[in-house]
C-alpha cells in the first residue's frame, strides 16, 4: 500500500468510522436499556432499600421511611450474622475452593489422553449432576441421607450400623458433600480445556530431562494452567457464595443455625421475619464478601483477569 | 447510511418493545364480566377447599351472577412461605387476589400494613353477620378495633391418642393425661413396649412455622398459667418460670427420654404429612399434639382415610402442667376471609364472599376440613353435630386462649420457633434458649415492653 493511497483513503475512513460508531450505538441501545432496567436500577434500589424499614407486614409496611444505618447496626449486633458469615466461609472454602477445584482438576487430569469413548461416558455422568437443578439435587441428597435412605441402608446391611440422621448430625458436612458432588463438573470442564491446550512437547521435554511424574505435575502442568485455576476458583467461589436452594431444601439452614449461610440468613430475615429492608442490607454484605474474595485471589495468584 | 437507518429503526423498535413489555396490560372487566380471584394456602393433593367450593358450586354461582366469574388461585407453599407470598402479592394492585384467606394471627399485622379493607360498612348491611359467633368476630379484628376478616373456621387442639398403641403399652382404655408428667410416663411405656412407634409427637422445627409457636410452645405455656403477652399491661412475657418449664418439657421428650420422632422426621417441612397422613394411619404414633382438623385427613374422602376413626383414636384434652385448674387448656385460632385494599373488584368480591360463607357452606367446610364452625346456626346443624370428636372439641373450646392481638406477634413468633428448635435439636439448653429468646423479643418490641410473669 503506497502513501498516496493512505492519504486518499483517510477522510473516507473517518466518515465510515463515524457511521459505524453511530450504528454501533444504535445497535447497543436495546442492551444498554436492558442493563439499565434490570441491572443498575435494582442495584441502586438495593442500596436505597437497605437504608429503609421496608417490611412485608405490620406497621412498617404502611409507612416506608429512611432509618439511616439502623439495619446495619442491628446486623452487627446480631450473633446470627457472625454465625452465618462463618458458615459461609466454611461452606465456600470446603465445597468450592477445596472440593470442587481439587476434584475437578483431579478428574480432568486423570482423563487426559484416555480413550475418547471412556472420556465421553465419564464426562456425561459427571456433567449430569451439574445440569440437574439445585432443588432436585437437594431432594436427591435428602433421600440419599434420610433415615431410610440409601446410605443408611448400605451402612446397615454392610456394617450393621444403626440409622444415622446424617442431615442433622452432620449438617455442614452433608451440604458440603452435596455441593461438591453437584459442582465438580464445572471445574472439570474448565480444567479439561486448559490441560488439552498444553503442548505435548513441553511435557515430553521435561520427561526427557528426567522429571518424575510428581515434578511434571507441580513444576510444569500446574504452572501452565495457573491462570485457568485462578479464574476457576473465582467463578466457583462466586457461584458457591450464592448457593441457596440446595441448602434450603436439604436443611433449611438448620438445625438451629448450623447451616445458615448468608443467602439463607438473608432469605429468612427478608421473607420469614418479614424484614425486607434488613434482608437487603445483608445481601450487600454478601456482595462485599464476594468482592473481597475476588480481590484476594487476584493478589495471591498474581494474575490479571 | 442505509444500514444506519435500519439500525436506528431496529434500535428504537426493540427499546419501545422492551419498555412496553415491562408494563402489564391487565384490564379486568372489559366485557362487563369481573373475575374474582380467591387465594388460599393449598395443601397438596385432595385439598378440601376444592370440595367445598366445588366446580358445581362455582357454576351455580356464575349462573346466578352472570357478571362475576370466580377463579380459584391456590398458593402452594409451606405454612411459613404462604404469608410472605400473600403479602408480596397484596402489595401491588397488579398482583393482588380479590379475596384472601388469612390466618388470624397475621391478620392484625396485615391490617396495620394497610393491605386489608375494613369491612365494617360491608357487614352492617349483611343479615347473616349476626349469626357468626361473637368471640370469633373479635378474633378477626385489627388492633384498631375494625373488622378486617370474616371468620371461616376455628379450631381446638389436644392430644391425638392411638388406642391400639396405648393398649399394647398397658394403659387403660379410657386413659387421659391429667398432667404433663402423665404424658411423659405414658410415652416411656410406649417406647419400652413398641420400639417402632413414635411415642409422642409435637412440631418443633422452624420450617413448620407458626404451628410450632402455637400448637407446641403456647399450648404448653398457657398450661403453666402464664401467657405470652399481657393484654392489660401490653407487656411480653420473658425469662419466666413457665417458659423454662415449657422448654424443659420439650427437652425431656426430644433429648432426655428420646420419646419424640427422629430429627429427620421432625426437622423436615413434611413433618405434618409424615405424622398425620402416613404414620398415624399405620398405628405408628402413640400420641401427637395437634389440632382437631386432622379428622379431615382421616375422613372418607380425606388424604389418608381411617376406618372407625373414633374407635381407633381418642382426642384427649391437653392437661395443664401439674393438673392445676382449669385442668386443661387449648389454643384456638382459625382462618378468615379478607378483602385486599388494592383489589379493583371489591364490590364483586364482597358478593362472592357472602356466597362463600352461608350456613350450609359453613357446615360443609367444617365437615370437609375437620375444623370447627364459626356460625352459631351451623353449630346446631344435626349433620355438624354428628362430626367425629365434636363433643371433645367443643369442651376444649371452653378453656380456649387466643394469640396476642398485636401486630408484632408474627415477628415474636419467629423468635419462639427458633427457641423451640434450638432446644429440641439439642443445640441449646432450655435456660440458654430462654435467655436468647428474651434478647430477641426485647429487640423486636423494645426493652420497656417486656416483663416477667409470675
Structure description:
The complex is a heterodimer of chains A (305) and B (454). Chain A is mostly helical and 305 residues long. Chain A has 2 domains: 3-49, no CATH class; 73-301, MetI-like fold (Orthogonal Bundle), CATH 1.10.3720.10. Chain A is 78% helix and 0% strand. In chain A, α5 (116-131) packs across α9 (171-196). Chain B folds into 2 domains: 34-155 and 333-401, 3-Layer(aba) Sandwich (D-Maltodextrin-Binding Protein, domain 2); 157-332 and 404-451, D-Maltodextrin-Binding Protein, domain 2 (3-Layer(aba) Sandwich), CATH 3.40.190.10. Chain B contains 22 helices and 16 strands. In chain B, β12 and β13 form a beta hairpin. Classes of the chains: A mainly alpha (305), B alpha/beta (454). Chains A and B meet through α1, α2 and α8 of A and α1, α4, α5, α12 and α21 of B. Chain A: It is a multi-pass membrane protein. Chain A: This is ABC transmembrane type-1 domain-containing protein. Chain A: It is found in: Cell membrane. Chain A: Residues 85-297 form the ABC transmembrane type-1 domain.
CATH architecture type of the largest domain in chain B: 3-Layer(aba) Sandwich
Mean pLDDT of chain B: 90
What share of residues of chain B is helical? 40-55%
How many domain regions of chain B? 2
H and E order of chain A: HHHHHHHHHHHHHHH
What is the C-level CATH assignment of the largest domain in chain A? Mainly Alpha
CATH T-level fold name of the largest domain in chain B: D-Maltodextrin-Binding Protein, domain 2
Shape of chain A: globular
Count helical runs of chain B: 22
- What is the number of beta strands of chain B? 16
Strand order of the largest sheet of chain B: 8-11-7-12-13-15
Protein name (chain A): ABC transmembrane type-1 domain-containing protein
Domain ABC transmembrane type-1 (chain A): 85-297
GO cellular component, one term (chain A): plasma membrane
Membrane topology (chain A): Multi-pass membrane protein
